[in-house]
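Late entry, evening session. Most of the bench is empty. Finally got around to the prediction I had been postponing all week. Sequence below, unchanged from the version circulated by S.P.
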Amino acid sequence: MNTFKITGNSVALDADGYANNVTASSGVAFTLITDETTDGLAHKIIITPSGSVTGNYAITGNDANGSPISETLATNTTNAVTSVNHYLDTIVVKAPSGLGAETVDIGWAAASVSPWEFLNEVWGPLGMGFACVKDSGSPTYTAQQQYGDGTAFDHATVSGETTSQEGTYTTPVRAVRLSWAAAGEVSMYGLY
């Protein structure tokens, strides 16, 4: 039998945790206070501009497993925009080209993910059982799986949970992870 354990204590949203009221320079990377959160999880990035200039903010960094990722966030109001990807570290945010005098807050959302736990290809005849234990805080979490191409799928029953839960996989999956929508600590234990 094979076992695994994933533990994470997702920190709360901090809309200016990376940069507070920093001045934008056209096409230049912002100077960030830090380029990662303290919880070791990958979070979505939030950008809140002070003005209403239309622009594309370029984000680069590493995902939860350390692979390079990037995207562009378009803004045209003072409303916050949130990245699609989850960033762990080595984060760089570049201001849009042609941007005038404007300040920006850059931070992280509560939405976060653990690194993928890649599973041994030898599965037992009964599939896999797992338990997610709420350790502390008030987390909202989901168990996720992928089949080899990196696309995350939510578990059929352990999804949007706020209490300790258990679940199973009856057919093999390539990797599993935890995903948070609200801060708190959860541990996932698996046996296959």
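Two things to note before I forget:
The chain has a mean pLDDT of 92.
The chain has two domains: 3-7+114-191, 12-109.
Will write this up properly tomorrow.
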